[in-house]
Amino acid sequence: MDETSYHQLEPEIYRKIGEEIGEANPILDIGCGEGKLANFLGATLGKEVRGIDISDTKLVKARESAEAQGISQLVHFMEGNASHMDNIANKSFKAIVSVYTLHELGDPNKALREMDRVLGIKGKLVLVDFIKGGEAEKIWGERYYVPQEIGSMLREAGFGEVTTEFVHDDVVFISSLNIW
Question: Among 67, 68, 112, 117, which is most buried by a count of CB atoms within 10 Å?
Fold first, then answer.
């Protein structure tokens, strides 16, 4: 498997995310990058989405893509850090999604507590990421987690009903509910 192969998984991952979040609206996309997932949710499912990423360069591309697709009234992007979402009100989203981002967070526990704060009661959190010991770790050499670690971090942050499934040998799809 190489980097391109992981990107080829994205349409299936986005479809699964859409199914998992169901009727939830509005949605927060953490680590949205160039806005592919956020724009998919807006264009395909009519969701109101706010994307947040630390890279303003990627956000320019995300905004351009939303504009080109005619969904800029639904999808908005802002520069920010998942660990410090001070400009987002408590309990303001019905779902939070994040693809290939958890391992990038400097303090994932703090970021998950922030996600818990901005996610409404019984809101859905969906995380997709690479796992420790997989092919992605060999390619990029980054810090990944085993699914049990992610589940523990989620429970410590206030999430419950954690479910885990694999979308590929080393790509895990985790969903959870905000129970507070």
Answer: 112
pTM of the model: 0.95
Alpha carbon 96 to its chain's center: 6
Cα–Cα distance for residue pair 66/49, rounded to 1 Å: 11
* Closest residue by Cα to residue 85 from 54, 126, 120, 49: 54
Tell me the Ramachandran region of residue 31: left when phi exceeds 0, alpha when psi lies from -120 to 50, beta otherwise. Answer: left
Instruction: Name the band, by pLDDT with cuts 50, 70 and 90, for residue 80.
Output: very high
In 3-state terms, what secondary structure has residue 18?
helix
Alpha-carbon distance values, 44 to 20, 40, 59 (Å): 14, 6, 20
Structurally, what CATH architecture does the domain formed by 3-178 represent? Answer: 3-Layer(aba) Sandwich (3.40)
What's the rounded Cα separation, in Å, for the pair 116 and 154? 9
Alpha carbon of 96 to those of 8, 20, 31, 115, 124: distances in Å? Answer: 22, 11, 11, 7, 6
Domain-by-domain residue ranges, the chain? 3-178
Which strand (E) or helix (H) includes residue 123? strand 119-130
